[in-house]
Design a protein that fits this description.
This protein is α+β, with helices and mostly antiparallel strands. It is built from four helices and ten strands, in the order αααββββαββββββ. The chain is globular and about 65 Å long.
């Protein structure tokens, strides 16, 4: 036995690492705490002049950064809200089984956090330079199950890097024309 025989190599750890399964994420204490308290470490909302965005205040590996949080409404209610706006803003549509669901972070504050600003609603869009992807889960909270979208890093994120994701919305899917929501099914 040589020096360091009891210590795995970093490459071996990285090669064996797997993201949390949906079932693990839905009952993970750190994720439940983040969703409940809306205090996600290592992220800050920053004003970039024409819009707000989220930056990393520490480096992140591939894992969950925060959630997209808001009132859960039906897809029809969300589409009705979108019809009254010039853009989709903070509405996210997805399928859950055969039901169309919408998370409304446009209506601020949300019912469950009336005095808190939620970080995930400020993550901006980038089709080519995204570094997180969304992942639908039903988190097991004390007051009951809740639909949330978790943002998971797709690559290592450096300190001070802007957090972005691809909204995957096509122009023809807006304003009631041929809605394309398949991108949130997975």
């Amino acid at each position: 036995r040589g020096r360091g025989a009891n210590h795995p190599r970093p490459e071996d750890i990285i090669a064996k690492w797997r993201p949390l399964s949906r079932a693990q994420a839905e009952s993970d204490p750190a994720i439940i705490r983040g969703v409940t308290r809306q205090k996600w470490r290592g992220l800050a909302v920053k004003d970039f002049g024409e819009q707000k965005g989220v930056v990393a205040t520490k480096a992140f590996g591939k894992g969950i950064l925060c959630d997209f949080h808001g009132n859960v409404i039906t897809g029809a209610e969300g589409r009705e809200m979108a019809q009254m706006q010039d853009e989709l803003g903070h509405l996210f549509f997805f399928k859950h089984g055969s039901d169309e669901v919408c998370i409304d972070a446009e209506t601020f504050p949300c019912e469950c956090h009336p005095s808190l600003e939620t970080t995930g609603r400020w993550i901006t869009h980038s089709k080519k330079n995204y570094n997180v992807q969304r992942r639908h889960c039903i988190v097991k909270l004390q007051e009951g199950d809740r639909h949330v979208l978790l943002f998971q890093a797709t690559k290592d994120i450096l300190k001070d890097e802007k957090i972005r994701f691809d909204h995957s919305i096509k122009k023809r899917s807006f304003r009631g024309e041929e809605v394309e929501l398949e991108w949130l099914d997975n």
